[in-house]
Amino acid sequence: MHNLELITTAHIPLLTDFLTRYPRESCDYSVTNIISWGQIYRNHLLIWQDNLIIYNPKYQYILFPLGNNFSEEDLADLVRRFRVYFSKAELILIPEDYIRDHPKLEEYFSYTEDRSWADYVYEVDKLAKLSGKRLAKKKNLVSQFIRNHPDYKVLPITSDKGGVLLEFTHKWRRERSADGIYLMTEIKAIENTLNMWDDLPTEGIIICLHNRIAAFSIFSPQTANMVSEHFEKHDPDKKGSAQLINWETARYLQGRYKYINREQDLGLEGLRQAKLSYEPEYMVKFYFGTLKNA
After folding, report:
1. If you write DSSP's letter for every residue of 97-146 in order, what string do you get?
2. Is the predicted pLDDT of residue 294 greater than 70, yes or no?
3. Most buried among 150, 168, 269, 279, by the most CB within 10 A?
């Protein structure tokens, strides 16, 4: 398709501009995810009717446009234009409020909600305080970690730490005997993020025990009052390290953001239960649409 450009770090100012003016709560619209995962899938972008369009050629996904209001007819026209070159192109990440406010959308698209790709959103203060009976076990595990390791340190991630963090990530995978296409792709996304650390709007923290990594998290701005946590890994041999990194991340972000988006569960039951156990405030629903009569 004409005018499609491969997304690179050179597009960060453009992406930042559009996402500042037209913020979205879905983690797929964070600059960090667009760049780090986009390098894997060779995502492209173009400007269409003053809107920013992001396209994933591997799966032929058109992300819902960033820009001014556009009609149902405009969206159908966009997908038709893509289908001239990409026969299976589909529209994804249709906002729930757009579906609610545009009943005519059903005339053009069959749309479906995919629970596996919904984002979990939490209040930062609640994750930092861990108050109440439902979070008591997590608070106890944090307290136990602190008692067992009173000399642990919280360090900021800097670009020179990329190598040791990637080594820790591979160690985490080996010790869990974890494999699979998505996991290996995630590790590549972590590597991309670390390699571009000084270019991306990312931050992160490391839990350090005796000069060794016990856990780390990586996050970046999503909207003015929301941050998205993209990656979080911990040492399973250090009891409470999973709860501690979650808690310390929330404490680090307190006062700066109201909400933290901890992304999706991918339909993995263990991950779903872990995310639900932290009592999310709400979910950012994921809808994809297939053009009718195409």
Report:
1. HHHHH-TTHHHHEEEEE-GGGPEEEEEHHHHHH--SGGGHHHHHHHHHHH
2. no
3. 168
Look-up of token digits 């390098």: 39
Number of H helices, E strands in the chain: 11, 14
Q: 136-148 and 241-253 are packed helices; what angle lies between their axes, rounded to 10 degrees? A: 100
CATH numbers and ranges of domains, the chain = 5-118+287-291 (3.40.630.30), 119-263 (3.40.630.30)
CB contact set of 42 (below 8 Å; sequence gap of 6+)? 6, 57, 58
CA distances (Å), origin 287, targets 56, 72, 92? 16, 15, 6
Angstrom distance (rounded) from CA 142 to CA 239: 9
Contacts of 27 (CB under 8 A, 6+ apart): 33, 119, 222, 228, 230, 261, 263, 264, 284
pLDDT of 227 > 80? The answer is yes
Tell me which DSSP letter residue 275 carries.
Answer: H
Report pLDDT digits (tens) over 151-196.
999 999 999 999 999 999 988 777 665 567 788 899 999 999 999 9
Instruction: Supply the DSSP symbol for 66.
Output: B
Instruction: Provide CB contacts within 8 A for 65, sequence distance 6+.
Output: 48, 51, 52, 53, 75, 78
pLDDT on residue 181: 78
The 10 Å Cβ neighbour count of residue 31 is 24
Three-point CA angle 92, 32, 48, nearest 5°: 45
Which tokens is 225 given?
Answer: 């009052």
Sign of CA pseudo-dihedral 259, 260, 265, 270: negative
The alpha carbon of 133 is separated from its chain's Cα centroid by a whole number of angstroms, namely 29
Residue 144, Cβ density class (10 Å: 0-12 exposed, 13-18 middle, ≥19 buried): middle
Per-residue pLDDT reduced to its tens digit, 248-265: 999 999 999 999 999 999
Strand-pairing partners, residue 284, are 119
Q: Would you say how long the chain is, in residues?
A: 294
